[in-house]
Amino acid sequence: GESVGLHLPTLSVQEGDNSIINCAYSNSASDYFIWYKQESGKGPQFIIDIRSNMDKRQGQRVTVLLNKTVKHLSLQIAATQPGDSAVYFCAENFPGGFKTIFGAGTRLFVKA
Amino acid sequence: EAQVTQNPRYLITVTGKKLTVTCSQNMNHEYMSWYRQDPGLGLRQIYYSMNVEVTDKGDVPEGYKVSRKEKRNFPLILESPSPNQTSLYFCASSLSSPLGGGNQPQHFGDGTRLSIL
Fold first, then answer.
1. Nearest CB to A99: which of B45, B107, B110?
2. What percent of chain B has pLDDT over 90?
3. More confident residue, A41 or B90
4. Candidates B25, B66, B103, partner chain A, best to mutate (most A CBs within 10 A)
5. Is the per-residue pLDDT at A36 higher than 70?
C-alpha cells in the first residue's frame, strides 16, 4: 500500500484498550473540526466532526473533545480493535473562506 | 455507489511534460478540492472550488492549475511538472462548502501517486 508518512508519531495500544489521539490546531478562529482515518492505499475517511460551539461529541466507539482555550482536539477510541490500525488526521476549517488545514497525522498500531 | 474517482492511480513521467489528473464525483457535491500528501506533512490543500466556474488557491498552488466547467469534474493540471511535485494527490468533495450549509466532511478519492523524474 501507499506510505502516507514515514516519520509520524505512533501510538501503540493493546486490543481492547482505549486510545487517545491528540491534535493541536493552528487558528483560534477555526469553527469546524474533523477527524479522518486513513488506511494504507486509501484516501482519508471521515470519522467524526465537531463545531466550535461544542466541546464534546460522541459517535459509535469514538468521542471527540475540543478545548478552544488551548487549541487542542482529541479523538478517543473505545475498545480499540485491530481494524482501527491506521493513520489518523485532524483537520480544521478556517472561517471566512473555504480552506481546510490538516495536521501531520498519528499512526495507531493495535496489538492483538 | 457514492464515490470520488481519480485517474490515473499511478503515473511516472518526466520533467516538463504536461499532465492532467482527473477527478469525478457522483454525489452532486458543490465543493471540490485537491490536496497533496507528503511524508510527515499531512495533507496540504492545493486548490478548491466552491461551485462551477468558482475556484481559489489553497496553501500550495504554485505549479498547478484547476478548472471547474462541470459540477462533477475537477481536473488538476500540471503544465510543466517538476520533481518537487512528486507526491501523493487526493481529490475530495463535499455536499456543501466546508463553511456553508452547516459544514460537511469531505469525501476523498483513493489517491494518485505521481513520480516526476
1. B45
2. 80
3. B90
4. B103
5. yes
